[in-house]
Amino acid sequence: MDSAKLLSLIGAMGSRTVAVIGDVVADEFVYGRVARVSREAPVLILEYDSTDVVAGAGGNAANNVAALGGRANLVGVVGRDEPGRRLAASLHARVRQRGLVRTTARSTPVKTRILAGGIHSAKQQVVRIDRAVGNAFDRQSRKAFESHAISASLTADAVLVSDYGSGLVSTSLVSKVMKALKQKDRPVPVLIDSRYRLLDFRGLTACTPNESEVEQALGVRINDSLAILEKAGRAVLERTGMKAVLVTRGGRGMALFVPGAPTVHIPIFGSDEIADVTGAGDTVMATMTLALASGATFEGAARLANYAGGIVVMKRGTATVSADELRRAVRSDTKRG
Q1: CA distance 63 to 58
Q2: Is residue 191 a contact partner of residue 175, using CB atoms and an 8 Å limit?
Q3: Is 109 helix (H, G, I), strand (E, B) or coil?
Q4: Main-chain dihedrals φ then ψ at residue 2, nearest 5 degrees
C-alpha cells in the first residue's frame, strides 16, 4: 500500500476524537531483583525495587489514542480508592475523564504483575495476581456509565468498545449506542474488542480478535493452516455481520477479512523476538479505530495497526505508540521494501 497515504492518515489522526467505552483496569507492575532461593519453599526471594501503576484495558486503549495524537473520551467505572486514583493519574493529557464513573460500591480492578531479574538482565514476569476483576456493578454506577457512553459516542468520530469480561459491557448497551448514533445521523465507525464474547456483538464496523479468541469462539485449532484460518475468519464475518474482521496472529502477522474481497495477509512488522505482549491488543484496536476515524480504508487501518502492534510488543509493560514512532515504522518499512 502507498506509504504516502499511510503517512497522510497518521497526520489526520490529530484532529479526531474516539469514545473509548468499557472495562478499565489498573495495571500494577512490581519490580524486584532476584536475591536467593527461599529456605521455606522452592521459590525465589526478590528484593523489592519499584512499583508502577498504569491504566490497562480501555484505559490503555485511550492512552494509545492520545499517544497517536488523537483525543479520547474515556467511559468506564473505577473505585474511589488508591488504585483508581493512580489509574486516573496515569492517563494521557488528551484523555478526557468526564465519563469515568467513580464509585464507593466497587473496588478498582487491579492486575498485579510481579517481574524479576538480575542486576544486568531484563526483568521477566513470574506471576500475576488479579483483584476485584469479577466484582459486580451497582445499579447507579451502571446507569451513569450507560448515560456517559451514549453522550460520548454522539460527539466522537469513532467508538471503541473494550469488553474484558467484567459484565459492564453488554449487547444491550452497544445496541443503545448504535441506536443513538442512528437517530442523530452519525454513521461513525464502531469497533469492539471482546475477550470472551466475540460472536455476541453483531452489525458493528469491525472487531480485532486474536487467533486464540477466534479458536475459542469457534471451537477450532488454526495453527499454521491458512485454509482453517480462512474458514474461521469468514465464519466470524458471517456470524457477527461485521464489515471487517482483523485477526491478529502474533508472530504470524495479521489477516484482514472483508465481505466480498480476498483476504489480506499482513506479515509481522519488526522482530518476532518480542519483549512483552501486555496490552498489545489495546494498541492494535486503538490504532485501527483512530485510522478509520481519519478516513482510512480497512486495509490502510489494518496496516497501521500492524505497525503499531509490532512497535509496542518491543516495549515492556503496558505501553503506547506515538505518531512519530508510527511514521518512522512506515518509512523504514518502505525503504526495506
Answers
A1: 9
A2: no
A3: coil
A4: -60, 120
Q: Is 27 an annotated catalytic residue?
A: no
Q: Which residue in this structure is represented by grid cell 495477509? A: 265
Strand 264-266 versus strand 254-257 pairing type: antiparallel
The active-site residue, picked from 200, 272, 282, 324, is 282
Does residue 316 contact residue 222 with C-beta atoms inside 8 Å? no
- Do residues 278 and 55 touch, judged by C-beta distance below 8 A? no
DSSP H or E stretch at residue 217: helix 211-218
Please give the average pLDDT of every successive group of 10 residues along the chain, which has 337 residues. 88 94 95 89 89 94 96 96 95 96 92 83 83 82 96 97 93 96 96 94 95 94 94 96 94 93 91 68 94 96 93 82 91 73
Cell 525495587, residue located = 49
Closest CA to 62 of 247, 248, 246, 290: 290
Distance (Å, rounded) from C-alpha 130 to C-alpha 48? 20
User: What does the block give as the cell for 181?
Assistant: 448514533
Q: E-assigned strands of the chain?
A: 17-22, 24-37, 44-57, 71-79, 95-103, 110-117, 124-131, 158-163, 190-194, 206-207, 244-248, 254-257, 264-266
pTM: predicted TM-score of the whole model, two decimal places: 0.92
DSSP secondary structure code for residue 210 in this structure: B
pLDDT for res 277: 72
- The SS3 assignment for 192 reads strand
What is the arrangement of strands in the sheet containing 95-103, beginning at the earlier edge strand? Answer: 95-103, 71-79, 17-22, 158-163, 190-194, 206-207, 244-248, 254-257, 264-266
Name residue, grid cell 448515560: 147
Contact 308, 287 (CB under 8 A): yes
